[in-house]
Amino acid sequence: MKALLFLHVLVAMAVVGELIAAAVAARFELWDLARRAALAALATTIAAIGLGEGLAADQGVHAGWLDASRALAGFGLLLGGALLVVLTGPSRLRRLAAPTAALLVLVGLATAFVMAAKPS
Amino acid sequence: MAETQWLVGFHLVGAFLFVSGGIAAGVLHALALRREKSSEIAILLRLTRPAVALVGAGSLLTIALGAALVDRDGFSFGDGWIAATLALWFASIVLGAVGGRSARKSRYLAERLAAEGDESADSLHRALRNPVARVSNYGSFLCLLAILGLMVWKP
User: Is any Cβ of chain A less than 8 angstroms from the Cβ of B81?
Assistant: First the structure.
């Protein structure tokens, strides 16, 4: 169980790291790099959610803070990550890629805050 | 929400900035190693600067709130896993600074070479592959992994 928690946190940190790389690359219009980082972040988000669900099932946790973090990860990081992949592609809305990636970094940090603080 | 919950929450946010910023800087540095043109290497090394700033902010937030939590939750700095965490935190900072110093020198060199004609240069590739810097960077990251392990298992 501890190993699962370790992996979950580490993979989640990788998600935020890839989003930071995507944000910086998009800010300097390095679209190939930004797209690759966005794709990596999306794939890693799926892994982090999978590990998190495995952890929740293992511990039998049912709580509001868990639902809140699920919503942030699902609607924020997963859908937002997919949107970022589209924006960093050959899109006319590319100028929105850097702020979107920066916003997703904040969503990732907010998710981490909720998971750690466990507000009732 | 209780004060401890706020402290734990922001302590983890700091840890995320610390580790995630390091991962972002590492990815950008690794990509710079694969480029040939000095101008491309200079751009990628320049991109690591915001990530390194996040590492600095995260490291300070982590240690400050971690110290507050030790005091508040009845732990002691003499507890084995907390003392080990502090030692690893300092080691990570020192090793990261050594690696970062080498990366900064490589960036200055890449910028100078790019301004002089943007050709591939052996001196730049040697600087990027500096073994001391590579060992320092990997060592710094391993320290962070060890800290994360100590935080999870609390042996």
Answer: no
